[in-house]
């Protein structure tokens, strides 16, 4: 079913699958997020997800649905200065476990077929998140490999991300860009627990490499598309301005 897509994925480290989700379900997913944000307590979530006061926030959020704000969403006094529906950076990291709508997507027959054709025998979902990329405030994702943060240890283990476009993603609004073939260059650095006391709980093993802008290729994706991302492929996204 996905033979040509997987061929491109093996070669480049990424691939776009158009029309993976139908329009009706896309709107269902977006509506569910609207409901979650509508019910969100801004002050509570701001406290829960502020990495300056809680450097362990990502780990502590692994089995929860937490709301993460854009840095520009608050004024100097810590007050929200824009509508909360436009203030968020992401929601993570257990939508696939705790929310029925996103669980339906994650464990759909189509996703299961794709994962099996990728060669997974006993796949595990490490995390899920919803990225907002709101206009004028949606921030940059610097060049990185997903395996830097979610690294499977073992010769027969690997990571693949499946990213779903719920809006048209273009070069103007911050679509993903990749360095084709970079998944064949190994893991460039890891984000690991820091064994030193009285230091940040997590540290990078190396500085981020100085990737060339000219090496990146944009991967626009129409609404409803799925984007396969090898855990080792270098990718980034620009601001939505």
UniProtKB/TrEMBL annotation:
Its cofactor is Fe cation. Keywords: Iron, Metal-binding. One of its GO terms (molecular function) is metal ion binding. Belongs to the PhyH family. PHYHD1 subfamily. This is Phytanoyl-CoA dioxygenase. The lineage of its organism: Eukaryota, Metazoa, Ecdysozoa, Arthropoda, Chelicerata.
